[in-house]
């Protein structure tokens, strides 16, 4: 689709299909709210709503009249296309400190992102009062949208960090590949199962119904090291074939691995990423996540090494039961010699904007 509905019970960009080359470009950014009062925050939320509603549906910008700076940058030409843009807004734990009197209304599980044992945290790339996820069909659409949103919110929020992402079309088929060369996103829950795992659970404040927890993990990939690893070692780290994406006990990408038939891990190692991430037991079925990750590329580091990796993006209804449980099982997995998480954050994606007179966080504020 070239345009996704803006209004609804849930925000777009979460269960909106990304694998297979749809919305191949993205931007993840975090902001801090600079306004001092709740009234300032309400005004900010209304402005963000109005801009996101316009940008995701497209159309001619307003005519502000002679002598004014133009309403639009014209980066996308005079008639702004929707171009598959989704805008997904989240709030971080820091928004619920005492600045805006919201402490009592914090989502039940929201907290600053946990630092895990293999992390190399860089403060400049972490946390934030707000998260914005933009996804679209072209990179100029992403640029245009973030520029428009920043322009209209000047003085009300300031950027903290920002990173652009991209993903691939199916090559040669199936799910897009990540920068380690493996198909990524294969075992994502879909349909009713995805909805059951992602949207707010009992125990959340009433205003939060229809939202979800967003996990952003910026994970550097040491691609030069990775390219020196043999194919069988690479495949054992994931538990899947690099060419087809099939589990090591199967033939096709969508074959379901049978861990129970291989209790010693002779075929799919016990330490493989898929086995640790999803052991496929009755007790672990409610720990599954919705992933919607992108690649990033930041050019070169100071040593001339490629600075690229993975914008790990996951959604879940309970950060502890789902993301943190899975992440803790992955601590020490063989893959960590080749990847380095350095940033990101936990955010609560606000419920959807219901209709043309509603706005983000209206039930919270
Ligand atoms: C599966 C790559 C980090 C959770 C996979 C697969 C790949 C992959 C190639 C197999 C294909 C698929 O089902 O999508 C990576 C890379 C990472 C990374 C390159 C870091 C750079 C993480 C993290 C988590 C995670 C941080 C969560 C804490 C999962 C889950 C699955 C999975 C839940 C599905 C397992 C299944 O149901 O079979 N990942 N992953 N991954 N990954 Fe990751």
Q: Gyration radius, to the nearest Å?
A: 21 Å
SSE string, helices as H and strands as E: EHEEHEHEHHHEEEHE
By DSSP, the count of extended strands is: 9
Low-confidence stretches: none
**Mean pLDDT value:** 96
Structural class: alpha+beta
Bound molecules: protoporphyrin IX containing FE
Please report the distance between the alpha carbons of the first and last residues. 33 Å
Question: Which shape, going by the Cα principal axes?
Answer: globular
Strand content: 15-25%
Q: Helical amount among residues, as a percent range?
A: 10-25%
Number of domains: 1
Largest sheet: 9 strands, antiparallel
Q: Describe it for me?
A:
- β7 and β8 form a beta hairpin.
- It contains 7 helices and 9 strands; from the N terminus they run βαββαβαβαααβββαβ.
- It has one domain (25-349).
- Helices cover 19% and strands 20% of the residues.
- The chain has helices at 38-57, 139-152, 191-198, 223-226, 231-238, 273-277, 320-330, and strands at residues 25-33, 86-91, 130-136, 157-166, 212-221, 290-291, 294-300, 306-316, 339-349.
- It has 365 residues and is α+β, with helices and mostly antiparallel strands.
- Strands 1, 2, 3, 4, 5, 6, 7, 8 and 9 form a 9-stranded antiparallel β-sheet that branches.
- The radius of gyration is 21 Å and the shape is globular.
- Residues 178, 180, 182-187, 217, 219, 221, 238, 240, 273-274, 277-278, 289, 310, 312, 323, 326-327, 330, 339 line the site of protoporphyrin IX containing FE (HEM).
């Amino acid at each position: 689709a070239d345009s996704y509905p803006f209004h609804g019970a849930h925000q777009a960009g979460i269960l909106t299909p990304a694998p297979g080359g749809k919305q191949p470009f993205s931007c993840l950014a975090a902001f801090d709210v600079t306004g001092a009062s709740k009234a300032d925050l309400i005004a900010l939320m209304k402005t963000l709503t109005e801009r996101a509603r316009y940008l995701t549906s497209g159309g001619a910008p307003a005519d502000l009249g002679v002598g004014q700076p133009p309403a639009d940058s014209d980066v996308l030409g005079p008639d702004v296309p929707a171009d598959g843009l989704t805008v997904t807004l989240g709030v971080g734990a820091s928004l619920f400190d005492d600045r805006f009197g919201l402490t009592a209304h914090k989502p039940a599980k929201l907290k600053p992102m946990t630092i895990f044992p293999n992390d190399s945290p860089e403060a400049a790339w972490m946390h934030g009062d707000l998260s914005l996820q933009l996804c679209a069909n072209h990179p100029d659409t992403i640029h245009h949208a973030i520029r428009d949103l920043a322009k209209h919110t000047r003085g009300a929020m300031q950027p903290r960090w920002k990173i652009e992402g991209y993903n691939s079309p199916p090559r040669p088929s199936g799910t897009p590949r990540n920068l380690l060369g493996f198909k990524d996103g294969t075992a994502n829950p879909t349909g009713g199962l995805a909805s059951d795992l992602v949207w707010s659970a009992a125990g959340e404040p009433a205003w939060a119904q229809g939202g979800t927890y967003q996990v952003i993990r910026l994970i550097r990939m040491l691609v030069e090291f990775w390219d020196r690893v043999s194919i069988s070692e690479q495949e054992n780290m994931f538990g899947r074939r690099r060419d087809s994406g099939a589990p090591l006990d199967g033939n096709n990408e969508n074959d379901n691995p049978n861990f129970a038939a291989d209790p010693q891990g002779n075929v799919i190692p016990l330490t493989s990423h898929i086995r640790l991430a999803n052991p496929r037991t009755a007790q672990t079925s409610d720990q599954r996540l919705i992933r919607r990750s992108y690649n990033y590329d930041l050019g070169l580091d100071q040593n001339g090494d490629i600075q690229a990796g993975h914008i790990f993006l996951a959604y879940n209804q309970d950060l502890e039961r789902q993301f943190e449980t899975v992440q803790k099982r992955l601590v020490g997995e063989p893959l960590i010699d080749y990847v380095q998480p350095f940033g990101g954050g936990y955010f609560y994606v606000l419920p959807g904007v219901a209709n043309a007179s509603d706005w983000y966080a209206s039930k919270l504020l």
